[in-house]
Amino acid sequence: MLHQVRGEKYADPELFTTRLVLRPKIRIAWGVYYPFLAISGLFKLAWRIVFYGLYRFGYVGIPVLFLVKLFADHGWRIGVATIVLVALLLVACWWRWPNAFRRFIGWFYLAQWRRWWVYYRHWHPTCASLKLALTFGGDKYFPTIAKVRRDAFGDLVTVRMVNGQLPEDWSAKAVNLAQTFNAVSCQVQTARHNRIVLHFRSREPLTETVAPFAIPAVSDVEALPVAVRADGQKAVISLLTHVLIAGASGAGKGSVLWAIVSAMAAGIRDGLVKVYAFDPKGGMELDAGRDLFHRFCFGTPEEMANALEELVKEMKQRQASHRGHGRVHEASLVEPTIVVLIDEFGALTSYVTDKKLKERINSAMSLILSQGRAIGVHVVAALQDPRKEILPFRNLFSTRIALRLVEKTEVALILDDDALDRGAACHLIARSLPGKGYMVLDRDPTLVEVRFPFHTDSDIAALASAYAPERPATAFVVNR
Ligand SMILES: Nc1ncnc2c1ncn2[C@@H]1O[C@H](COP(=O)(O)OP(=O)(O)OP(=O)(O)O)[C@@H](O)[C@H]1O
């Protein structure tokens, strides 16, 4: 029976020497056996030279072959002149286009060097000690390093797993792997065909505090620039889906809320976006920007329930007037987009002890979340504690943002079941990096690592005074 074992069979160097002195097991004339051994050895050598020299290490083998031919055909003067010319050309490229040079030449060669010097040399003992190798039929098989690439933050090592392995097995060893290969962190991302990518970072991206963005002149609620991605580009979210933000205490949920508010500030000023703000923690977080809100509610649970029911009533009126007029809501001065901003969603529901009140809040929230989108009512909710009470609503939020979380089980609860396998180690985000996290966008499986800009109190005050709508918050403002 021929067994298919996925992995690199470990060839003990000692076995290699014994194989050379091996005598044939069957009786065979020496005069036949040794010439056979010599010819087959030569064939193997030639094959290895072609395979390793031109294919595996072609990036070195081919230029070397070219130089050897050049020296042989045209003499050493032409050879040396060519080397100098190429070196000057490379220096000029590096000087003129440093980023492109790094990306296409520098990182490539550095990655190849690190593949052999850093990873391959320590690979087998590391896998054996972390129990990531497979023993079968008396042989040991190791996960194969298929490819190493480099980016601005470290190495991306593509690994073909052995039979029976899952990305989770590697995620569980991420800290050990990072420590072994002298990396700051190791993220495990799933790839196709039983492969995973280990992202060994030599430095963390997004460690700098991000300043507030310039406010877009026209706010497009379908594409609000709210954060910076690891590659330096702006991350954009759409409010046409409901947005859930989760993070431990001090993770920077406030910075996400303010990034969203500031991105739609022009719409607020022009009356095309109305923000209904709920701050069940007593109004501390959102108070600085209260002038931006059409409604600002920070009272008792009963007052919150009343406010939400008022909103449901307004929603029903919209539904009635929209019946028969298509399903896409267009913001106008008469019917602006309504954004329901909730700081600490958990405080709205989980901490309410009165059963009736809890039911009122839950059913109003369910209606808003399930029917609001079609008529321009969108929810942005932050929460600290992703516990069971949140779960019934979770799937109604298509855009989910997770900042630093306390436990790794919360990652699946907020983002996606396999988010941790795809590298969203929110529980490992340092406390010193508030506003950093991961997000999944509507119908897009890609996880985006981001850092949100930080708005100081004076930034928020300036925002509120420059972009406050004509009519500041009045109606059903509670406890003002
Ligand atoms: N994006 C950010 N960049 C840099 N620092 C930030 C950022 N967001 C928040 N901070 C810092 O972290 C502190 C805590 O932030 P914030 O109050 O927003 O956290 P939180 O998640 O709302 O916490 P809690 O749930 O306890 O209110 C802030 O006072 C600020 O100093």
What does this structure look like?
GO terms for molecular function: ATP binding; DNA binding. It contains 14 helices and 17 strands. The protein has 480 residues and is of the alpha/beta class. The protein has 3 domains: 48 residues, no CATH class; 96 residues, Threonyl-tRNA Synthetase, Chain A, domain 2 (2-Layer Sandwich); 244 residues, Rossmann fold, CATH 3.40.50.300. Strand 2 and strand 3 form a beta hairpin. The C terminus is likely disordered. Bound molecules: adenosine-5'-triphosphate.
Short description:
By secondary structure, this protein is α/β, with parallel strands linked by helices. The protein has helices spanning 13-20, 30-56, 58-96, 98-129, 167-171, 174-180, 253-263, 265-270, 301-322, 345-349, 355-371, 391-394, 409-414, 457-467; strands at 8-9, 134-136, 139-142, 144-151, 154-160, 185-190, 195-201, 224-229, 234-237, 243-246, 273-278, 295-297, 337-342, 377-383, 399-402, 436-441, 444-451.
Number of strands: 17
Bound molecules: adenosine-5'-triphosphate
Output the strand order for the largest sheet: 9-8-17-16-15-10-14-13-11-12
Give the biggest beta sheet: 10 strands, mixed
The number of distinct structural domains comes to 3
Structural class, by secondary structure, is alpha/beta
CATH H-level superfamily title of the largest domain: P-loop containing nucleotide triphosphate hydrolases
Radius of gyration: 31 Å
Mean pLDDT: 86
CATH hierarchy: architecture of the largest domain = 3-Layer(aba) Sandwich
Beta-strand portion reads 15-25%
CATH first level of the largest domain: which class? Alpha Beta
The proportion of residues forming helix, as a percent range, comes to: 40-55%
Shape by Cα distribution: elongated
From the structure provided, what is the oligomeric state, counting identical versus distinct chains? single chain
Discrete helix count = 14
Distance between the termini: 80 Å
Detail the poorly predicted runs: 472-480
CATH topology of the largest domain: Rossmann fold
